[in-house]
Amino acid sequence: MKNKLPKIYRKHRLFAVVKGFLRIFKRKPRIVNLAGELPRRCIVVVNHSAKSGPLGMELFFPLPTVKWGAYEMLGKFSVRRAYLRDVFYMQKQGYGRVRAALLATFEAIFSPLVYRGMRVIASYGDGRLSSTIAASEEALGQNMAVMIFPENSSGGYYEEMREFFAGFVLLALRHRQGTGEDLPIVPCYYHPKRRFLAIGKPECAGALADRGLNKKQIAEYFKERVNQLFHTYCAAPQKI
Questions:
Q1: Using H for helix, E for strand and C for coil, what is the string for 180-191?
Q2: pLDDT tens track for 30-78
Q3: Does the N-terminal or the C-terminal CB of the chain have fewer CB atoms within 10 Å?
């Protein structure tokens, strides 16, 4: 008898209906897949593209995934609203306080449905990252891909990535250390306005580490892989 998937990894029935509704209005992007058949157990790194990236990848990426997301968005209503208002809209998007507050209040009401439906696990920038790694390992054990949006977006979202945080590298190296499996990491680039999704060829962090690259250098390497997809298939960079 197979073990049941933990609740966060199961399909959310109501969100499945929402996804079907969204697909009516959100046109499918043109997909270029350089990877061929994707391994079900892998790490996917992709640009965030403000709010568009996670939802667009949920709708159109060809594998079921769990996703890393800001831990604040999995907190109580006041925490979600404050994060959306102060960080997402004001800090990253440059919105005024009134506009940011209105949007944040509305979105904070419905965000739990969306985040549960997209199988989001909380990510942290401190020692609590170990809990994110553990949840990711659990998903990988269920043959699910882990999708991570590693760009440093503290100054806003850009078409061309400026910095990648190395949490995904840590996950890959710890997984190899614990299981012996060098997980493939799949770089992707999603452009909602041009309706385009590029899926790059996977590479393994462990193999790069064996060549002498440290975690930061491996993160930089994959950042450039994602940017290469952008430059190959999209126009010159600009802030979005």
A1: CCCCEEEEEEEE
A2: 999 999 999 999 999 999 998 889 999 999 999 989 999 999 999 999 9
A3: N
